[in-house]
Each structure stands twice: as structure tokens, then as C-alpha cells.
Design brief:
Aspartate Aminotransferase, domain 2, 8-stranded mixed β-sheet, 14 strands, about 15% strand, binds pyridoxal-5'-phosphate
Length: about 375
């Protein structure tokens, strides 16, 4: 019989998400008093826009209804036209690929570097043709993509950079916030994300023309992609806590990696690049680890299922875009072997695990090691080498 396990199993002391702390509770109480939760317009969206602009140091922050439509709006802001090529990594969020199709462009898939969900810069350079209009670069699973290099390669060839910071709000990369390196950046406020209002997103840019195109596209005498006052209100107290929570998660993540040691569950995060310096601060929405190659996909699935039953919120990572879409829908640079490895072997740990205590993180490491022994060692219940 299948047991239904929620993100916050009672077995381990892992907080549920979102956290109903005082900041959020006060906002709800205040909204009940003043009725702002039910209005089309009010102070909350304006305040959030100002706060996001200041926090990121950008001229424009445009709120909208999801991270997915933020990416669509970024593409429309360029503007792309039918038949343009848009480059993205073969290991990326599935909606980014579909957005490229939605705007009638051709996705061009490039490989990642070996063992990390980070786009390969040489493949990026090789993929650019005179039909390339944009590249979408996502910061995934505790990694930060090398934006300085991406932007240099793109700028040299007249390609627009869309920086998907949905998984890393608040991260710092070479002294700038994630989402502010590209010509346009996107955030998600989805229910599991580090800043959440259940649904929602934002587009960040300092390009006045791009911002104007988004406004023209979304404002149709009525708002076509709105974020509500209620959503904006609950995001504000979370933004104030973001840096502190990111630092806590970082600390716990380092403890977890240390506790896992050489267990065979290898971190797929470039932690060396982000050790210490204030100008480089990662953020951990999902933390990526690699399991050994197995002869069938069940091994990884069962590893995750047993870990979840024990209360650890871990799942297989994304499916490679080249593995789930017909070849007719995209062009690819080469065979994408590294993205295939991520497709087969990556697992991702949800950030609530990193909001627990140091003691709980040790328990988590122990559970993951036990599951590993069971599934991936010759003496385990499912032992195959
Ligand atoms: C969550 C996410 C998005 C957008 O998600 P929505 O649920 O539409 O807000 C986009 N890109 C990445 C990498 C994400 O993780």
C-alpha cells in the first residue's frame, strides 16, 4: 500500500512551508481590518514593487501571476518574433521550453557542464546563429550560472539574456543580486518557492523599453497577468527575512554536505565558488545531489520514496527537455550527454529540510545514507552495483 507523505512529515522536525510567522500573521490581521485583501488596487503591490526595485537595484519590477508567465513576458519584451531561436540548457524547468514554443520560437538546447546543472559556455557560444534572439539561463538547485561570461558571450553576438532567478531570490553573484545580470530577470512566488504567495512572479529590468513592452502587453484596459493585493501583502514580510533565511539554509546545507561525507550521494552544487565571500551568496530552493548510474530508473525512484517515508523531502530532479520532447520541436547542439546524466541521476532536496535544526540535518544525512545503502550497495535490500 502506498503511504501518502507530505513535505512536513511528523517523523522529522522539518518546518512546513510557508511558515506562519509573526510578520505574515500581522499582515493577514491587518488585511482583515482594512479590507485591502479584497480590492483590485491598494498600497501592497506598489510597496512590493518599490521594495523589489530597491532590493535588486533595478529600475523596473513588474509583478505578474507566475514565474512561468514572467518568462513569457520577458520573451515578449525583447520582442521575439516567430521563427527566432532561443537557447536554453537541456536540463531546465519545463515551462521555459514551452514558453519558447508559446512565443512561436525555436528552442535550441545546449548541454550542461559535467555533473552540475549549469549551462556549458562553449556550447552556448557554438549554438548562436544569426537567428538567435535570446538565451534563457536558469540558476538551478543551489547553483549559480556564470552570468558574467554568459552576458559577455551574448552581448558580443547581439543576443538578449533572460536570467531565471526563480529558484534563487536574494542570491548574490559577483556582487550583484541574481536576476539583475541579464537584460531581464524573472522571479517566481509559487507555493514552494523561497518567497511565496502561492502563485505569482515578477520581471526585473533596467531596460525602459522592455518594461514598456511588458506593460503594453499585459494592460488591456484591465490587467491580464495580475498579482493581487493580497499576494503582494504576504510577500513583503518574507522579503525582509530573505537574506537571513538564505544564510540559515546555506549554513545547514554545508553541514549536510559535511555529514554526507563520501557516502556516494555527491553534491551537484558548485559550493567552492560560493564559500564565504559576501559578493557571492548562494540560495537553496532545491539542493542537488547525484546518485550513481543505475540500470533502471526505479532505483532512484525507490531511494526517494524510502527517504520521503522517513520524512526527508527529496525527489528525482527535472526530466531532460531532450528526453521528453519530440526532436521535431527543438534543435540541439550535439548529443547532450551531461544533461542526460542529470536526467538519470539527479535528486533534489526541498529547502524546508534546511530550515530545520543542526540536529535534524544530521538525522537527514543518516536517513539518506541508510536509503543509499539499501538501494545502491550490494548488501542492501535492492543491492546492485
Ligand atoms: C518555479 C520555477 C519557475 C516558475 O514557476 P511558477 O510556478 O510558474 O511560478 C521558473 N523557472 C524555474 C527554474 C523554477 O524553478
Amino acid at each position: 500500500m502506498r503511504v501518502h507523505i507530505t513535505e512536513s512529515s511528523p517523523i522529522l522536525n522539518i518546518p512546513s512551508w510557508p511558515i506562519n510567522d509573526d510578520g505574515v500573521r500581522e499582515v493577514f490581521a491587518q488585511m482583515l481590518e482594512d479590507g485591502s485583501w479584497g480590492r483590485y488596487h491598494g498600497p501592497h503591490c506598489e510597496t512590493l514593487v518599490a521594495a523589489l526595485r530597491k532590493y535588486h537595484g533595478v529600475d523596473h519590477a513588474i509583478l505578474c501571476s507566475s514565474g512561468t508567465c514572467s518568462v513569457e513576458l520577458a520573451l515578449r519584451a525583447i520582442p521575439v518574433t516567430a521563427g527566432d531561436e532561443v537557447i536554453l540548457a537541456a536540463y531546465d524547468f519545463k515551462a521555459n521550453f514551452v514558453n519558447v514554443l508559446t512565443t512561436r520560437c525555436i528552442p535550441v538546447l545546449i548541454d550542461t557542464v559535467a555533473d552540475y546543472p549549469i549551462p556549458d559556455l562553449q556550447q552556448l557560444a557554438d549554438a548562436i546563429t544569426n537567428r538567435t534572439r535570446a538565451v534563457i539561463v536558469s540558476h538551478l538547485h543551489g547553483n549559480l550560472a556564470p552570468m558574467q561570461e554568459v552576458c559577455r558571450i551574448a552581448a558580443d553576438r547581439g543576443v538578449v539574456v533572460i536570467e531565471d532567478a526563480c529558484q534563487v531570490p536574494g542570491a548574490m553573484l559577483d556582487g550583484r543580486r541574481a536576476g539583475t545580470w541579464g537584460n531581464v530577470g524573472v522571479l517566481s512566488f509559487g507555493g514552494s518557492k523561497l518567497l511565496t504567495s502561492g502563485r505569482g512572479g515578477a520581471v526585473l529590468t533596467s531596460d525602459a523599453q522592455m518594461a514598456q513592452r511588458i506593460r503594453v502587453y499585459t494592460q488591456r484596459g484591465n490587467e491580464a497577468y495580475p498579482l493581487s493585493e493580497m499576494q503582494a501583502a504576504v510577500l513583503l514580510p518574507q522579503l525582509l527575512q530573505l537574506d537571513a533565511r538564505n544564510a540559515d539554509r546555506h549554513q545547514r546545507l554545508l553541514e549536510l554536505v559535511r555529514a554526507l561525507g563520501n557516502s556516494g550521494i555527491r553534491p551537484a552544487m558548485n559550493l567552492a565558488d560560493t564559500a564565504g565571500a559576501v559578493s557571492n551568496q548562494p540560495a537553496f530552493y532545491k539542493s542537488a545531489f547525484m546518485l550513481p548510474q543505475s540500470d533502471n530508473d526505479n532505483q532512484r525512484k525507490q531511494f526517494c520514496e524510502s527517504a520521503r517515508i522517513a520524512g526527508v523531502p527529496v525527489d528525482p530532479g527535472f526530466s531532460g527537455l531532450h528526453r521528453v520532447h519530440s526532436r521535431q520541436r527543438f534543435r540541439a547542439v550535439g548529443d547532450l550527454p551531461n544533461a542526460t546524466q542529470l536526467h538519470n541521476r539527479l535528486i533534489s532536496l526541498h529547502h524546508t529540510a534546511l530550515l530545520s535544526s543542526a540536529e535534524t540535518v544530521k538525522q537527514i544525512a543518516g536517513i539518506l545514507q541508510d536509503c543509499f545503502e539499501d538501494r545502491y550497495t550490494p548488501g542492501g535490500v535492492d543491492g546492485r552495483v
